[in-house]
Amino acid sequence: MSLDSESLARRPSDGGVPARRAVTRWAWRLLRREWRQQSLVLALIAIAVAVTTVGVGVSTNTPLSPYVGFGNATDLATFSNYSTSTTAKIASWHQRFGATDVIENQSVTIPGSVEAFDLRSQNPHGPYGQPLLSLVSGHFPTNASQVAVTSGVATNFNLRVGSSWRELGVTRKVVGIVENPKNLLDEFALVNLGQVTSPNEVTVLFDASRIGKSSLGSNVITPASVAQNNVLNPQTISIVLVTMAMLLIGLVAIAGFTVIAQRRLRSIGMLGALGATDDHIKLVVRANGFFVGLVGAVLGFVVGFAAWLAYRPILQSSAHHVIGVFQLPWIVIVVAVVLAVAAAFFASTRPARAMTMISTVSALAGRPAPPKKLRRSAVPGIIFAVAAFFLLGAAGASGGNGIGPGEVVLGFVGLTVAVVLLSPFLLTVLDRFSRRAPLAIRMAMRDLARYRARSGSALGAISVGVLIAMVVIIASAARFGNVLDYAGPNVSSTQLLIYTPNGPYGPGGPGNSGNGGGGSSESIATMRRDAHDIAAALGSNKFVKLETTSATLQHAAPGRSYSGPLYVATPQLLKAFGIKMSTIKATTEILSMRPGFAGITKMQIVYGNYFANGGPNGAWPCPTSDCLANPSMQGTRALPAGTSAPNTVITEYAVHRLGLAPITSGWFVQTSTPFSAAQLTGARATAAADGLSIESKSTIPTSATIINWATLVGILLALGVLAMTIGLIRSETAADLRILSATGASTRTRRSLTAATAGALALVGAVVGTAAAYLAMVGFSRTSALDGLSSLGSVPVANLLAILIAMPLVASIVGWLAAWREPRGLSGQMIQ
Amino acid sequence: MSMLELRNVSKVYGEGTTEVDAISNIDLAVERGSLVAIMGPSGSGKSTLLTIAGSLEQPTTGDVMINGSNVVGMSRNDRARLRRRTIGYVFQDFNLLAGLTAVENVSLPLELDGISMKKARAQGMSALHELGLSDRAESFPDQLSGGERQRVAIARAVVGERSLLLADEPSGALDSVNGEAVMRMILTACHGGVAALVVTHDAKLASWADRVVFLRDGKAVDETLPPQRPEDLLSHDASNPSES
Fold first, then answer.
1. pLDDT at position A831, please?
2. pLDDT for residue A285
């Protein structure tokens, strides 16, 4: 059977679509057969996309979206109350835009409680406000004598469908239970239109998308204007993070695809012998990259979406609003998938090009290309590093103006490029330094330098991994190490704070600020009894009264200022934490457990009418009438560490000296075991009923949690890249190893070679990554008004040692153990 | 017109002190339908000659004419096209592509040349059928025996309209029975009009050739015309002391 002349005549000179289809099919088949060899890259991509899918789902759905108030509208106007002009404006909009939805709210305080709800009039079937209202049971009010309430309001007033409820002088029948599905914390009572007599907020929803917004007034917002004011939203942050992650994965993938291409060298040689063009050969490698990216991205999305489905109900209850199954930021997810595929594809282009540089004869013989000479100059890398330094400096300087993200991103991209460019150069430096080292180390360093086209990119990937981990570590250490603006968990899981309306957060409890007024001794006694009951119900073994004064601390120098409550060091409080009065100097005014706090200069206690008189004006020392400069401060480790706990206290000596009047602001409760969710719910309900508020452990991680995780991820990433690279380099030098063995070198020498290669790459990667991270942080901090260079004084020594010493050691040990068997040389490998 | 003609071909590797003459001033012609064997000791330049004849490498000097066209000076893509359409290779270790079935391996050169998958597959099945491998068409290389793999490789080398078959130790990895079967197939292809150039160490297999060319130190030192007994070829080859 021979081909017909028509088929022969129509053959395209480059093979056309049939040829491309054939080589693509082969690449796909090879991936199916040999996916295990690419499992690291596949796993990295899958994890990145899965984490992105769940992460952006959680991050964008956890806080209330700034767009939820819009419903179906494109424009939202808010008025604080009705006036003639407001009414006229709404009427004109109604006429101009065809339809408007007017939502009127009147805030009503729940009797005997600090909480409030809204009396709301809204058209349940309005064209724009419909998504903001849903019926749980019963029906919507249809006349002036009917009302529908949220479950919270129903609980507070002991209402159910059919109840009669008198509020604001009007008796209405409860006909339904409603909710705002976009915000389950939104507590309101829905009445018929026109029934809110004194609204303190009027929201108008409409669609003015066809005209210019400038003519509508400054109180009109659109989703676009909200987005403009919210540049650092979760979506933007996610896209930046996923771009960085894919950049790193791309670097890892370059080494991975090079390994795969080398393993397929003879097959690719045969393809060339069969008449494949350079484009076909490139297509084989690129198609492999594309398929790896696609499979990894799809797998990651499926896993991520499954995790999202599992986690959504939990998130829904904790975020207090209904979250749809498909309520995900799809743009970010699509960007992540596209980036994953693009990263893998572009990572494969370099090995693809390299394959075409190898002659068909060499490829058929399984001879890899001779080591490629790279430019040894460090100048381009240094230029990028300097540019990154100044860009990050610009970001630090502009941080106060709310700008900076662009400079931060550009700075880190520049730093990444610098690291990648400098890595091959550093390998030659390493080679030069090892010329007098023992044979195995000398050979290992020489191989790294010879094969630096590959080992350089691997070193770049290791360095970038360490860089990211170190930036997180240094930034966390700097932020958490700031003893003025104290960060971290508020209290431990066995501690609870119960606040009176006089507490540091005012009547609204945590989340508000400012002291309330005083309280009658009767009411304080009642609250103490209630708080004690809460503590007893929790099984408390420590119940400490907390007193505050009008005094707080201030730092009269640029940068961060003091944050946190300043409780009075009452004898009961000191005794509760095991502090003997005899250990406190008689003239000590401030006692703090914050490390190094006692040594900070330019501190001042401000009190009385300090803020009413204009507050800080830069004068030093501050006026003595309502300020005490350089108070005597003493450190102690006995006070609790939480940011909301009494970690810093003012002594009774200072209270008397400054003539301050302590008031009871709450109680500190401690138990021996962590509280259960049910206990906390019960405590919260009891406290709310008594006009108190509680504060339990927040989800803010500790400094150690963030830093240790970052260290672990950085080390694992670096070791993963190493595992792939070492295999490649040792495979390429298998012939040298055999010669070495033939000349009498022992297994020990071979193991030393691998261990030295792994250790050297890990060490240089760790040093370069750490140096680059400090360069970035110094660049940023030196111009930052908030955190100066001094913020870098908190050095995470243990984590630095883990990365700089333990990681290279682990790499060496694993390399030593893994090299027990001589690797098969490429030339000795059978293709089939 | 010869199917393959090498005119005064030389190949030099390396430069300066590392310069090595792999082959020197080789003249060789292979007619359509003829089988020429190349014999010689290791390092005599047999494989280099084959790769130059197959356009995988360019000679340092001389001309390589394939079907009347001079390969020297052709672009990489033109040479690739020439290989797709005219030249078939058979190697000692088969070099079948893992991941592709036997029939896909055979039809691959046609698909690379732009023939639709359906037509290329039909051609591939036909070639396998002629070599008695129809029932193994859907098997992957690692499911085939050594002899079957080499038969698939031969089918791939002769599929379509290709007229020049180059084989480098095609029976090197096979036992004598399979080795002879392979040579018989190559000979059958030659009877169909294909010109074949076979590099071999095996004098017995070389005796199947129409002509045997002996290489030593990159130079053609002798040519013998069959019919000739293998013993004579062996004694001829043994005159070279460096024979391995």
1. 28
2. 92
**Residues A26, B99: C-beta atoms closer than 8 Å:** yes
Cβ burial, residue B53 (10 Å; 0-12/13-18/19+): buried
Give how far the C-alpha of residue B176 lies from the chain's centroid of Cα atoms, to the nearest Å: 19
Of B83, B119, B142, the CB nearest to A273: B83
Nearest to B56 among A7, A26, A360 (CB): A360
CB atoms within 10 A of CB B23: 24
Q: What is the pLDDT of residue B244?
A: 32
- Calculate how close chain B gets to A288, using CA atoms only, in Å: 13
Secondary structure, 3-state, B149-187: HHHHHHHHHHCCCCCEEEEECCCCCCCHHHHHHHHHHHH
Is the CB of A832 less than 8 angstroms away from the CB of B80?
no
Looking at the partner chain, which of A18, A25, A278 has a beta carbon nearest the beta carbon of B115? A18
One DSSP character per residue, A59-122 reads HHHSSPPTTGGGTT-SEEEEESS--HHHHHHHHHHHHHHS-EEEEEEEEEEPTTSS-EEEEEE-
* Smallest CA–CA distance from A361 into chain B, residue: B56
Question: What domains appear along chain B, each with residue ranges and CATH number?
Answer: 1-86+163-171+195-244 (3.40.50.300), 89-161 (no CATH)
Structural contact between residues A302 and A47, judged by C-beta atoms closer than 8 angstroms:
no
The percent of residues in chain A predicted with pLDDT above 90, rounded, is: 17
Residue of B58, B105, B110, B199 best to disrupt the A interface, most CBs of A under 10 A: B110
Instruction: Give the model's pLDDT for residue B241.
Output: 42
Instruction: Please check the confidence at residue A76 and state whether its pLDDT lies above 60.
Output: yes
- Phi, psi for residue B219 in degrees, rounded to 5: -120, 145
Closest in A18, A32, A33 to B116, CB measured: A18
Q: How far apart are CA A716 and CA A703, in angstroms?
A: 20
- Other C-beta atoms closer than 10 Å to the C-beta of A790 total 11
**So what's the pLDDT on residue B11?**
92
Confidence of residue A454 (pLDDT cuts 50, 70, 90): low
Which among B95, B104, B149 is the nearest to A270, CB-wise?
B95
Q: Which of A236-240, A465-469, A639-643 has the lowest mean pLDDT?
A: A236-240
- Residues B144, B149, B155, B156, Cα dihedral to 10°: 100
Tokens of A406: 């662009």
- Which of chain B's residues have a Cβ under 8 Å away from the Cβ of A1? 122-123, 126
Torsion sign, CA atoms A767, A768, A770, A771: positive
Interchain proximity B99–A32, CB inside 8 Å: yes
**CB of A21 less than 8 A from some CB of B:** yes
Closest CA to A586 of A521, A665, A649, A654: A654
Structure letter (DSSP) for residue A805: I
| Cβ contacts of B109 on chain A, cutoff 8 Å | 274-275
ipTM for the whole complex: 0.86
Closest to A50 (Cα-Cα) out of A314, A336, A344: A336
| C-alpha distance from B65 to closest chain A C-alpha (Å) | 17
The pLDDT tens digits of the residues spanning A503-545 come to 655 544 443 444 444 456 667 788 888 888 888 888 887 889 9
Q: What does the pLDDT average to over A167-190?
A: 87
User: Residues A606, A627: contact at Cβ < 8 Å?
Assistant: yes
- Compute, in degrees rounded to 10, the torsion defined by CA atoms A203, A208, A211, A217: 0
Instruction: Provide the whole-model pTM.
Output: 0.64
Low-confidence ranges of chain B (pLDDT < 50): 238, 240-244
Name the pLDDT band for A28 (thresholds 50, 70, 90): very high
Is the Cβ of B82 closer than 8 Å to some Cβ of chain A?
Answer: yes
Predicted pLDDT of residue B12: 92
